[in-house]
Amino acid sequence: MPSRKIPSLNWLRVFDVAARTQSFKATANILNMTAAAVSQQISALEHFLERKLFDRTNRSVALTEFGALYYREIREPISTLQFATDAVLGIGEAEQLSIEAPTVFLSGWLIPRIPDFLRENPSLQLNIVVNEESISVGREASDVLILYETPVARSREIIPLYTEVLFPVALPEIAKRISKPEDLLNEQLIDVKGHTAPWRIVLDHLGIGPEAQQHVRMMYVTHTTISFAMASAGMGVAMAYKPSTDHLMKIHGLVACPIEINFAGAARYFLAIDGPNSRRPTVDSFKTWILSEVAKTD
């Protein structure tokens, strides 16, 4: 049976980037093309395959079921071809590593430690992207992802990192007023909207019932880093998430309130690595390094 011709490598290169970014505009910027040219290349590949790869709207594009299946099949050969070409041509002295993670993990855990990794990899160019949402199929642009909550991504290597432990923190002069759970009722509590373990769940855990909770003075913010800044300004008691917020506690001058909680968060952090990228030495080095750092975390 005669074999079918291989599609143009240029079409595949454009499709690879478009599938990772889910944006023809972003693909155009990365490849120094126009969005119209990207669309033309994708259309040519669709015509060759006689299948639709993307669903297009006025403002966005999304992989079709066939497009996602085709991308899973071609991304490793494309990645391998790129790495092999770079190796033969001597390209890649300035190796790049892109990391996507939530703000708290970056500012409270990773950033204080990452200089050690960079000292071991002095030629590495590090790119960091903030993401506050769970990442699902189709988010393939970063080399490594830090996922919070139960990961919904598939066809990746996913490794558990740690589960957070919760406890209240405040300025020392406020913290010393809190020696038992009931003392929290006399303080302004700073809660983070949308977090998996809000203050009221912790108060339930401490045995403070709904009737008593009605008298709690609660202030709501949208991010943990904001709650720590407010606690540092003497505005109340924030919730810490060990070990993610250990560094934030230090720089904001906050201390743990002297009451025992022993409350573990409902979710945990995961390291996720895309299949082809897991073969890169730099990604493998980062995986080894971060797992070692997690093992050293109290």
Structural overview:
Strands 3, 4, 5, 6, 9, 10 and 11 form a 7-stranded mixed β-sheet that branches. This protein has a two-stranded antiparallel sheet with strand order 1-2. Residues 134-139 have low confidence and may be disordered. It has 3 domains: 9-89, Winged helix-like DNA-binding domain superfamily/Winged helix DNA-binding domain (Arc Repressor Mutant, subunit A, Orthogonal Bundle), CATH 1.10.10.10; 96-163 and 268-296, 3-Layer(aba) Sandwich (D-Maltodextrin-Binding Protein, domain 2), CATH 3.40.190.10; 164-265, Periplasmic binding protein-like II (D-Maltodextrin-Binding Protein, domain 2, 3-Layer(aba) Sandwich). Strand 1 (54-56) and strand 2 (61-63) form a beta hairpin. Helix 2 crosses helix 3. It is elongated and about 75 Å long. The longest helix has 25 residues, at 65-89. It is built from 11 helices and 11 strands. It has helices spanning 9-21, 24-31, 35-49, 65-89, 103-120, 172-175, 199-205, 210-213, 224-232, 246-252, 281-296, and strands at 54-56, 61-63, 96-101, 125-130, 144-148, 156-170, 188-192, 217-221, 238-242, 255-256, 263-274. The chain is an alpha/beta fold and 298 residues long.
Number of helices: 11
The overall strand count is 11
Question: Termini distance?
Answer: 62 Å
Strand content: 15-25%
What is the molecular shape? elongated
Q: Mean pLDDT, as a whole number? A: 82
Helix content: 40-55%
Largest sheet: 7 strands, mixed
Q: Assign the structural class, choosing from mainly alpha, mainly beta, alpha/beta, alpha+beta, or little secondary structure.
A: alpha/beta
Query: Which CATH architecture of the largest domain?
Result: 3-Layer(aba) Sandwich
**Model regions low in confidence, pLDDT < 50 over at least 5 residues:** 134-139
Count of separate structural domains: 3
At the first level of CATH, the class of the largest domain is: Alpha Beta
Sequence of secondary-structure elements: HHHEEHEHEEEHEHHEHEHEEH
Under CATH, the homologous superfamily of the largest domain reads Periplasmic binding protein-like II
Radius of gyration: 24 Å
Q: What is the CATH topology assignment of the largest domain?
A: D-Maltodextrin-Binding Protein, domain 2
